[in-house]
Every structure is written in C-alpha cells, then in structure tokens.
Design goal:
Layout lengths: L1 E4 L7 H10 L4 E5 H5 L5 H10 L3 E8 L9 H19 L3 E5 L10 H16 L4 E5 L10 H11 L4 E6 H5 L16 E6 L9 H8 L10 H11 L5 E3 L4 H5 L2 H16 L17 E10 L2 H13 L3 E6 L4 E6 L2 E6 L5 H9 L2 E9 L2 H10 L4 E2 L12 E3 L5 E6 H12 E3 L10 E10 L5 H11 L3 E10 L2 E9 L6 E6 L6 H9 L2 E9 L2 H10 L9 H11 L3 H8 L4 E5 L2 E7 L8 E9 L9 H11 L1
Parallel strand pairs: 1-2, 1-8, 2-3, 3-4, 4-5, 5-6, 6-7, 7-8, 9-12, 13-16, 18-21, 22-25
Antiparallel strand pairs: 9-13, 10-11, 10-17, 11-12, 14-15, 15-16, 18-22, 19-20, 20-21, 23-24, 24-25
Length: 614
C-alpha cells in the first residue's frame, strides 16, 4: 500500500486529504497536529477518508513515553488511553510511538521493555497495535537495532517495530540488519530522503527532508534489506520540509506518488517492482519553439538572424516559421488559436516548448505514464505529423521526437521548405543547454520529474551570487549529457531570476548554443551587429593570474567579451548576448577536452554585467 503522512503537505487537513486522494494514494497517516487544528471531530475525519477511499494507516506520533519516572509514567499511560479513544473514533488500529527525547527519561533498558509491554497490553485490550521507532536524536534509543531489541524482548503480539529510512541512514547506521527482523514484527515503514548536509540531525530532519529520488541518502541498501524480510505492509512518506510547506498541496502530493513509484522500482527484481520501462536514450534537443505575436516577429527575427539563423520554412496550415543553423531548429509560433497562444497570454513572448530526440517514443511515453506524468495532444491538421508531448515546467511542453522523424521528416511533412543551402553562418552547431527559472518551492519537484519520468541525472546544487541576492541552480542532465537543463531559483525578488519569475512567470530564460570555434563565432556575430554582454576588464586581469594563461589568449577573449573556466577535464569558453526585450538571452559556448560544467565560477560576473546593463 502506498501511503503518505499529512505532515508532508501544506494547507489544512481537508485540502491535504483531497490532494492525497487525487494523487492516487491508498493510505494516509494522520499527524496529530493536523487533527488538533481540524475544525471537526475525529469521526468527521474518518468519514472524509472513507468518502475519498483512503485508509487511515496510522495515527502519529506518540512522544516521550518510555522509561519515565513517576508520576510522569502514570500520566503517560493515561495520555495513551485518551489517544486510543481518538484512534477508535478515527477508525485506525495503529499508533506510532517514537523513542523518548526527554531529559527525564531513564537509561534503563529493562524499564523500556516493561513500559512498552504494558502499553501493548492496553492497546491489545482495545483491538489496537503500537509500533516503536528509534528517533535519530532519541536520548537513549537512537538506533533501529536497539528499538528492535526492546520490541523483541517485550515479546507482545500488539507491539512491533517501525523503520524509517531517514532515522536509519542519517546516522550512518547499516541497514543490513533489517533483513534479520521477522516480517510480522515490522509493523510500519516510513521513507524519506535528504541532501547530504553537515548539521545537527534534528534540524536536518525538521527542515530538509525530501522525497526519495530528490536527495542523496543510500536508499537502495535500505530497500534491499527490507525486501529480504518479505515485508508487505504500507510504504509511507514522512517528510518534514520547509520547501514542501510552501509548495502547492496537489503538486507535492503528486511528487510523493511519483517518488514512491521510483522507490518501489529501485530494485528491478524487487518485490514491489512493476516493470517500468528504462529511460530512453537521448540525442540532444531537436528544436525550441517560441510563442510570439506579430509585433515581436521583426525584433526577434532580427535578433536570431544576427545569431546566424536562416528562415528556412513556413508551416503548411499554421502561422508558424522554421529557422535553422547547424543542427539547431527554432520554431516561431504566431498562432492565435493554439496552446502557444494560451502560453503567451501567461508568459508573453517566450519559449513554450522544446523537442527532445529519443530512441523509442513509445517506451518513453510508457515510462511517463507509469510515473503519472501529464501528456498533451494538440491540434493536428490533415496530413500533418502528430508528435506526442509531455507537460513540462510552468505548463510548457516537451515533445518526444524519434530519430527518423528528426531527420527532416517532421519539417518536410509539416513545412514548406526553402533556402536549404547547407551553411552555418555563425558556426553554431547544436543546443548545449537550456536554463529554466522556477519558483523556489518547485525545484525539488521538477528535479524529481526529470529524474523519474525522463531518467535524467541530478547534479549538485550551486549557489550563485547576484548583485541583489542569492540564487541556487541545479542541473538535470540526460545520461549521455546530450541534454543539459539547469534549474534556477531565488528567494530574493530583485535578483535576475527573481525579476524574470515575477514579470514573466518563469520558464526558459537562457539558451546556450555550442560553437565549434567561439572566437570565430563571436567575430561573425559582432560583424552582424549582435550586441554582446560587456565584461569588465578587471575580470581578465584576475583570469590571467588565476590560470596562468598566455597573455595573447587573454587579450583575444578580452576583446571579444568571452568568459573562461578550466577544470581537470578541460576548458570552457562562453559569451552572452544582451537580453532580448528584457526577457531571455542567449549564450555561445565552446567546450574543450572533457569539460562538462557550465562555467558556474563566472556566473557572478555575468549577473553583475547584466545588472549594470539594466
């Protein structure tokens, strides 16, 4: 059974339960704080869950119970009886008891065993069960192996152990011993991931947990050990996260469902695996589609013309143009009765869609459906090609194009083509990367989307200094790195990305083209009158000292406003255009050797230059 705790989501309890049901969960853990703040009775919650076809799989947490001195011990037992009343009114038979963190608790293992046995006796008398969980910051019991030891010693049929991936893996505990716990004594399993942070484990847990697939904890060994037990009970999310508390409830619930599907299939031959198709092979970004009105046509056409693109075709039935250079295709959509027009009403002149070249469209769609990714089907004229698409960031589209279609069949079928001479006016060969700007609470969700639905790999996060605040960027890349997509967020409204988000509601802000020879490309672009971002001279003085570069080379890139980075794999040269209409901008890059990064070290310089540009 797939379940989730109400603490994972933002909003009131009713909206949480509605979102959980819509996402397809079968079970829900009712977090005590949600019940306390609910304007209704526990039986109202039970009725609501029954209407939504949700089973209440747990009531939690019951804190600071075991090994307390009198009179606290007696009060705890009275408190437990009142919680049992609530459970019966809720219609659930299971309560989660977490290990004691009180400074009053006694370091007496026999006392812990006796207290849990008595609690289990009281629960069993009412047809209820309890599960004991070791909190990573428990005062005397913080290891799941110790929690299992006291459960085993208590030897009561109404008492079992609760396993939580975060509490186990955050402390570096080896999950292998899970395999030695009898299946019928594992009463409940909670799963969470987290980034690797060097901080107090309680603060780490309370603010930075995330769904499996969004973090860096070693979940595979945890799931391998659990599979060996034969456990067939609920797998449930319990996530405390500042980001989730600020994110839309429905979006987080769907992310949680997608995450559980990912986790169940982490072991291809495991007991939960559903045979989800592997991720497709990729062969780069096939096209970028802009939505714009007639007023923007001439300025954008002039801008991309200066970049060396040629207008090579017009759609047979729609007001759509095709521009090309090298392997790069730019589609300009002026339609007024279309998805592009709807997107334009929200975002203005912008990128509304991209096309990915994939090995197997059918398998890619099957994988997307398995991970509950929404698809899109647009209007198709007679004799025109229908290209399947997925919904992407901010409602944009990701078209999936097979190799046969990509090799001109798409353009020859749907477009009247002209000017087919093969020449690359500015030496731009392919699309190197696309950078999206997102609302900050959505970063984890879209990272998970690309990871699960498309099989991309998430890179590490990078902090970027903007003159008006901090930005965070995390790239998601196809396995062969033919598609690279940095995702950028900022909590500060006046940063470069913050202004783009507030003014244009996010989406693609930066498009990078790869050049075979960036010096020659920049010379050609400059000759065509393309305005390039001016880089301060101090940058080049520092660059020469930092990398011990040849002065002639430094002067060559200084005179062309080209930025430079180097790592152990190779060199990276890149230059930026001015921003088009205050909206998006282009980058020209050349990768030398095996350099795979994005020149993050230069981001602050670029942002300062853009801020100075206004």
């Amino acid at each position: 059974m797939r379940a989730i705790a109400t603490v994972c989501l933002s909003g009131d309890l009713r909206s949480k339960l509605d979102a959980i049901a819509r996402a397809g969960f079968e079970g829900v853990e009712i977090f005590e704080n949600d019940l306390i703040s609910f304007d209704g009775t526990p039986s109202d919650i039970r009725d609501l869950c029954e209407t939504l076809k949700l089973k209440i799989v747990a009531f939690q947490p019951f804190r600071d119970f075991e090994a307390m001195p009198e009179p606290a011990r007696s009060r705890n037992l009275q408190r437990a009886e009142r919680k049992f009343d609530v459970m019966q009114e809720l219609g659930t038979d299971f309560m989660l008891v977490c290990s004691n963190v009180s400074p009053q608790t006694l370091d007496d293992r026999d006392r812990v065993v006796a207290d849990l046995r008595e609690l289990a006796d009281r629960a069993a008398a009412r047809g209820l069960r309890i599960g004991f969980e070791a909190l990573a910051w428990g005062r005397h019991i913080s290891d799941y192996r110790d929690a299992w030891d006291v459960v085993k010693r208590a030897d009561h049929p109404a008492l079992g152990v609760v396993l939580d991936s975060f509490h186990i893996l955050s402390r570096g505990h080896d999950p292998a011993a899970i395999a030695d716990i009898p299946r019928d004594k594992i009463f409940f399993v909670q799963v969470a991931d987290a980034p690797l942070l060097d901080m107090d484990v309680l603060q780490w847990s309370r603010h930075f947990r995330c769904f499996p697939g969004q973090g860096r904890l070693p979940l595979a060994p945890f799931m391998e050990a659990l599979a060996k037990t034969g456990y067939d009970g609920p797998l449930s999310h319990e996530i405390f996260s500042d980001a989730f508390r600020a994110a839309p409830t429905d979006v987080t619930a769907m992310d949680g469902m997608r995450s559980l599907i990912y986790l169940e299939n982490l072991l291809p031959n495991g007991p939960w695996a559903e045979g989800i198709p592997p991720a497709s092979g990729y062969h780069g970004v096939h096209f970028i589609e802009f939505t714009l009105d007639e007023d923007s046509a001439a300025p954008l056409g002039e801008f991309i013309g200066a970049l060396g693109f040629r207008h090579v075709g017009r759609h047979r039935s729609k007001n759509v143009e095709l521009w090309k250079q090298g392997e790069i295709h730019l589609v300009l959509n002026f339609e007024t009765d279309s998805f592009a027009h709807t997107f334009r009403l929200l975002h203005g002149t912008s990128v509304c869609a991209v096309g990915f070249r994939v090995d197997d469209v059918a398998a890619a769609l099957a994988r997307a459906r398995a991970f509950k990714a929404p698809t899109y089907r647009g209007q198709v004229g007679e004799g025109e090609m229908e290209i399947p698409a997925l919904r992407g960031v901010e409602g944009s589209l990701i078209y999936l194009v097979d190799e046969e279609t990509a090799l001109d069949r798409q353009w020859q079928t749907d477009f009247e083509l002209f000017d087919q001479k093969t020449r690359d006016e500015a030496g731009l060969a392919r699309i190197d990367h696309l950078s999206y700007v997102l609302p900050a609470p959505q970063l984890l969700g879209w990272q998970l989307y690309y990871h699960t639905v498309l099989g991309f790999k998430a890179d590490t996060e990078h902090e970027i200094v903007d003159p008006r605040g901090m930005m965070v960027s995390q790239a998601v890349n196809s396995p062969d790195a033919s598609i690279r997509i940095p995702l950028t967020v900022s909590q500060a409204q006046d940063t470069n990305s913050g202004r783009f988000l507030s003014e244009f509601r996010g989406g693609i802000q930066q498009i990078a083209f790869e050049s075979r020879d960036i010096l020659a490309s920049v010379d050609e672009l400059t000759a065509r009158g393309l305005p390039l971002l001016r880089i301060p001279g101090n940058y080049y003085d520092d660059l020469e000292a930092r990398f011990d570069l040849d002065p002639e080379f430094v002067e060559a890139i200084r005179s062309r406003n080209i930025l430079f980075d180097r790592n152990d794999a190779g060199d990276f040269l890149h230059a930026y255009t001015d921003t088009f209409s205050g909206r998006f901008f282009f980058e020209i890059v050349e990768r030398r050797g095996g350099y795979e990064r994005f020149g993050e070290a230069n981001a602050g310089v670029r942002l300062a230059a853009q801020a100075a540009q206004g």
